[in-house]
Amino acid sequence: MTALAEPDYYDDFDSDFRSELDAKYEEGFGYSPDPEDEDDDGLDDLFAGIFDDDEDDDEEPVRAKAAPKKAAAAKASLGSPAPKGATAKGRPAASEVTVTTIAERRAAGGQTPAPVAAAVSVAAVPAAAAPVSPAPARAHQPAPAPAAEPVPAAAADEVVAAARRAAEKARAAADEAAAAAKQAVAHAVAKAAAAKAAAAEASAAEQAAQAALEASTAAEQDAVRAAAQLELVLAAPSGVTSAQEEEPAQAEEEPAQAEEDPAQAEEEPAQAEEEAVGAADPAPADPNFAPHIAPVNQHVEFLRRLRPGFEVPYVDPMHSVDECRIVSLFSNTGEASPRGYVWAGDDAAATRLLGLQYQLGLRPEWIMPWNAYPWFTPGEANGKLTPEQLHAGLKPLLTFLKTVPRVSAIVAHGTEANRLAQMLLKTDNPLIWRRGLKVYKARALHGRAFAGSKERQTEWLIEMGRAYADAMARAGLQTGRS
């Protein structure tokens, strides 16, 4: 219908191109100067006589306007022959006619629009009664097929830009995936290295534990000999030394020689008197109250007086209150040591602990033992400690820690010892936070707590060695045998 809106287009063609029907159609939908047309659209004249209104029966029927007399009215049929039943003076029957519609089409590259013709078949509208002269027949020329519409350059550029953006996104996604893969590989390599290092450390620790077990036998023998010598020293009479006890035969031979030579004995009375004075010298001081251990064992004496009838073992003089950095807190569920000193529970437990300390290079003066419940019933085992007994052992433990001012770690062996250590931490005593005291939980070294296969015992000793090694590091002590 674009052709109807642009009537000037037909001015470039032959005026005979439009038919009478086209002129009628244009007159109906185009501009009409009729003053009686209210809407000024020309439809009143077109529809006059089509709709039969009862109210308008008395009125004069609308007469159709005569078609414009143009010379080329008969040539608008585009070669369609006149109907067979039509006469020159009669009204032709309705038939199908062809109307050419002209539409604008923008050429590629912003060129001038080119008109495109399209043939549209519409129903013929009966024309008004007017003489129609037959038009000469013309060969019908079909409208040319529309050419393929070229793609605008702007659209092509947009498609290319979209493709480039998609390619960039794909490349960025690929780079991210590659980076993630590299990170995953690096993480896996780091994990593998850490696992290898952990395996090497575990192997070294296992070897150290095995060496500790092998050295435990020799250490046990040394401990037995040292204990025997200490008992001899404690049981010796006043003025008698271990060196004098080792030479009894020589002492027996001297009187016989003196009897054989009485003159020589009389000549040296001064020398005999000096020997007698030397034999009558007072006994050496008790080693349990030597200056380096006296504060702790004086605390033990106080605990003995506090509960008469109970036994409280001393701390071995090989330890030192001035050099001690680590406390071994034992769950003393067994019997007291027959030698009268604090121990790990039995000879086997003492041997294990001594071998472990030997492998770590932990010297005796750097460590000191203490019992969770200091008192023993003579000849009886304490058994599992009750909450009342643990509460009773809390205050003696605090007093003991005050006698060892450089202690910064407690290794609690067994369940009872660990409970007492946790009770100690809950007291919020200034001693705890001033020293940065840390508690390490470890397995008990005696009884059913250490019953197991050789492999399990090795694992337990390795864990125990790690606890002591960390405690040494906190105290600034270097591990390893010197």
Description:
- With about 475 residues, the protein is an alpha/beta fold.
- Among the domains are: about 1-140, no CATH class; about 290-475, Uracil-DNA glycosylase-like domain (Uracil-DNA Glycosylase, subunit E, 3-Layer(aba) Sandwich).
- It is about 45% helix and about 10% strand.
- The protein is built from 15 helices and six strands.
- It has helices at about 1-5, 20-30, 45, 155-235, 240-245, 250-260, 260-265, 270-280, 295-305, 345-360, 385-390, 395-405, 415-425, 430-435, 455-475, and strands at about 95-105, 115-125, 325-330, 365-370, 410-415, 440.
- Strands 4-3-5-6 form a four-stranded parallel beta sheet, with helices on both faces. A two-stranded antiparallel sheet has the order 1-2.
- Helix 4 (about 155-235) crosses helix 15, helix 9 (about 295-305) packs antiparallel against helix 12 and helix 10 packs across helix 15 (about 455-475).
- The radius of gyration is 63 Å and the shape is elongated.
- The two termini are about 110 Å apart.
- Mean pLDDT is about 75; it is low at about 65-80, about 105-130, about 235-265 and about 270-285.
Topology:
Elements: H1 2-5, H2 20-29, H3 43-46, E1 96-105, E2 114-123, H4 153-235, H5 242-245, H6 248-260, H7 262-267, H8 269-279, H9 294-306, E3 326-330, H10 347-360, E4 367-371, H11 387-392, H12 394-403, E5 409-413, H13 415-426, H14 430-435, E6 438-442, H15 454-475
Parallel strand pairs: 3-4, 3-5, 5-6
Antiparallel strand pairs: 1-2
Helix pairs in contact: 4-10, 4-15, 9-12, 10-15
Q: Order of strands across the widest beta sheet?
A: 4-3-5-6
Low-confidence stretches: 66-79, 106-132, 233-267, 269-283
Sheet of most strands? 4 strands, parallel
User: How many whole angstroms does the radius of gyration measure?
Assistant: 63 Å
CATH topology of the domain at 288-475: Uracil-DNA Glycosylase, subunit E
| Helix segment tally | 15
Strand tally: 6
SSE string, helix = H, strand = E? HHHEEHHHHHHEHEHHEHHEH
CATH level 4 superfamily of the domain at 288-475:
Uracil-DNA glycosylase-like domain
Coiled coil: 160-215
Organism: Sinomonas atrocyanea
Region (Disordered): 24-97, 127-153, 238-292
Biased composition (Acidic residues): 34-44, 51-60, 244-276
